[in-house]
């Protein structure tokens, strides 16, 4: 990844271990706190603590200086070598870091014979780094829990017998047997059986889903009954593996706020060194000079920022929201307008036919209208087309194959069926709408939430088909919560204005928050206009038909009905069916931003006061070390609050 020249020279590195490195081995994911501390780290802390105590006692006893120097040198060399290695690497790369500045402070303390002070500073730094590592591990725990959730083996049915094989050997087409309480090791389709499955680890929803023969089951689910599953995707191709890859990529990514934190940390260190030099020149007080360097606690922001992003991404994943890059989390926290497409986002995306109004009152006119419409929709994947086909099949109608079809997004489909030219789509113009007024039950009398689909045969209106898409449970509450955050809300739909107004009223939207009669390109244009007006926009859609609008927004959020993150469009993917997950994700992003900003402001304030007091001789080296470690720990713990708790 390329970086600009300033960024290569500026960043201050604080943690001994890369905070965004790979998660710990599975066995360590949920161990008690004492077991999470590495033995070598604990040994170094104990060694330096004993050394500091010994130096203090030896000084009281009047031990010769050369003895203290010998003891101190050995203990510092053994206890602080990780700090020295990190500082040496930073020095070679011409990069200022807290390790380098603290090593300078320790060295300065030893030069003036303050061995006890040097050892105490080293002790505080080692303890702070252990605390930092533990907080980072807490942020990784959600991902580690996902990684260790799948079973190691699967029971494959071969020649009528079950054989246990490693899940790495699973392949599409194999049939696996699942017992009650079993974890699903791969994506598949139910071949035999019926059961409730728990998808909470993927979607964040607690209620189980009932599956029967032919229904898909994603990896990572827990079945509450016996099932036979035909594998469709396994290993790295499974939805569960792709979810893990997406979360890991987001946790490993560097958002713009990371670079800002690095630059701020470097500036603080440079300021501390400059102020220390000025203090030495003006006061000739080496103790005050060392205290200034020690007081600079930039690690709180340099380490706390990536921890806040890591923990927030993990918390979002726990609720079924998968963020593909840390930068998207930062962008989401800054949006002021949330634009939602109606279909598949505020509604279930599974419309059904609720009425037929043929132009002719002849017997069989409804069946004829439905039959021709279903034939025209035969080759389309549009939800309305599928609803029309499903109703025709329910009536047992013989659906002819179309001779040709042409689908135009946002307008409908045209086809040649049995020599007749059939078009199925929404009323598009005033002329089209007036043509419906002569039908039985005019379009103005549509049922609440229903959409009129116009059917034209050989240029004449043959009738309308009424299609309704149910609102998702919780959509109105979700919009209310988003508005309570002070965000503007806008609903986009291709429905007629009257239909959109009725749906908007159910959702608590005002007429000014509704845009109706839109084509896909119109939605993209609205997003572009909002951004041009200075708004920061999040676009929420189904991830398929809304791809242009999702790409045009500052943040594209795909509210999918499945779990395949890689195939969904958008910067953020909500895999559950609960609309409230959108409000929760926005809340988490905004909270992360508040925490990071609080850490920034707190670091600047504490360091300014502490360095000023140290320069004036009001803060000794040990007190400065306490302030440094205390503020750093406070800011890191503040970021750690964002991490999700252990799953029960």
What does this structure look like?
It is a multi-pass membrane protein. Keywords: ATP-binding, Cell membrane, Membrane, Metal-binding, Nucleotide-binding, Transmembrane, Transmembrane helix. The protein folds into 4 domains: 5-145 and 245-314 and 589-640, no CATH class; 153-184 and 186-233, Calcium-transporting ATPase, cytoplasmic transduction domain A (Distorted Sandwich); 321-348 and 471-575, Rossmann fold; 352-468, Calcium-transporting ATPase, cytoplasmic domain N. 49% of the residues lie in helices and 17% in strands. It has 23 helices and 22 strands. The strands form 4 sheets. Strands 10-22-21-20-11-18-19 form a 7-stranded mixed β-sheet, sandwiched between helices. Strands 2-1-3-9-4-7 form a 6-stranded antiparallel β-sheet, with no helix packed on it. The protein has a 6-stranded antiparallel β-sheet with strand order 12-17-16-15-14-13, with helices on both faces. The model is unreliable at 1-13, 15-30, 429-435 and 562-567 (pLDDT under 50).
